[in-house]
## 1
Amino acid sequence: MLDTHAQGRPQPASIHAQADHVRLLDVQLLSNNWYVLRKVTLELRRRDGQWQRMSREAYDRGNGATLLLYNPRRSTVVLTRQFRLPAFINGCADGFLLEACAGLLDGEDPQTCIRREVEEETGYRIRAPRKVFEAYMSPGSVTEKLHFFVADYEAADLVQAGGGLASEGEDIEVIEMPLSEALAGIRAGTIEDGKTIMLLQHVALEALQGMR
């Protein structure tokens, strides 16, 4: 379906999703400044068979990948700390979040993307990333699907300083800590990033179940 209100502006990819229980009636482009925000008018067939018309907004920033660096021998993880404006304006006092590495695919496959992002952000060169699952992170409003990875690391895998790309506004602090401390940070509220919580709990469950 075409973006019917995108007059005089470059049009992003159209919506091609189809299903018998959904009728897409109109797609309005609200913003194409940084990423793409659309207002979609649709009819959805309810479970009783009736069709209900509604309008929803969807923010499309592409799909991404995230990875947790984990040393099972020492039971440590590597996280990043960086400023996040949306968190800052929604109650995070200083705007800085502890996170697992992540990045948008931008046309790359997930493994290629996350290898590059991890080296740029942390300085570690990944040896054997393992994909563990995929997830929609905020499906009520954002289209993004994240590909989740875990990779073992050793001190010898550190090949540069990391810190991200200053040209992209990144100023990333690299932090190594015990897995137990990171898990305690979830309980204490010092780790509030969703993807990071998911990966830390995944690694903790694997260790608990003796899967490594």
## 2
Amino acid sequence: MTRTIILWALVLAAGAFVVQWLEHQYLARAFSREIYVAVIGVAFAAGGVWVGWKLTSRAAPGPFQRNGAALASLGLTGQELKVLERLAAGQSTKEIARTLGLSPNTVKTHIANLFGKLEVSRRTQAVNKARDLHLIP
């Protein structure tokens, strides 16, 4: 945190210095008005790009690691986990049945079990809760 404060203090100090220097040069009429406007415009544009880059840069996420403790505490079976992953992919009940080689009624039973174990009532709630618990990527 201290490093960030010192960095911003230096950036602001350098900016204040440059503005004061430009004001002095302007009063001394060393350059034309257009040059001052261009220099200030370029400085603000570069500063905006730099701030945007700093605010949006993030470390690359590591590989997904499933939360084994939550998986065990909920008591999800392997087949229910597969159905949950397909739900997260946006597949319908029939598509999940076709993909996993199950009957649609079996998939519906797994979905009902998932809803009960995750304590939700909708597919989107189940997917969101599973992602919050790090059960699915």
## 3
Amino acid sequence: MDSNSSAAPEQPAWESASVVRVLPTIAPRKLNKVPFVELADGRLQGVVSSGSDISRVYVASVTAGTHGLSCSTNNNRPCGGLNQGWGCKHLDSLIEEAVLQYGQDRVARFLRVEVPEGSRLSSCLKGTRDPAPAAAVFSRFLRHLTYLELPGSATPIPELHWFPAGVGR
């Protein structure tokens, strides 16, 4: 029996060539609502579309440990909803999508928060308003968008060096 005739589904060649384990998303995400979410720079952060203006986006974040909350437009205008209490709908959307992308346990560990069984992560955060710079997150989001415009190629892209340059290497 050769190694290709196993009962398990065949792994795509690019996954076996990768030097970093590829983690699948927990559940499908709605990219039109939260097109960018990441656990980076000590924050859960991302870009959230405005519900009222198609041309406006918000950069929202939750700082790990302190749970400092930040939400502003990409040009640093503060979100009005964040000033009226715990958080805003943009932060809620960001947290929901992060849980879909990474799983609640991983996001909770990253943010350093205990989430009791059956509770939502956002209800366990006790943060206050703590503005964070939106420009760096928005710039990274725009850079990721440019990768979608690149033609398919086996040539390495320096910023994506952890992905294989070609299949079967």
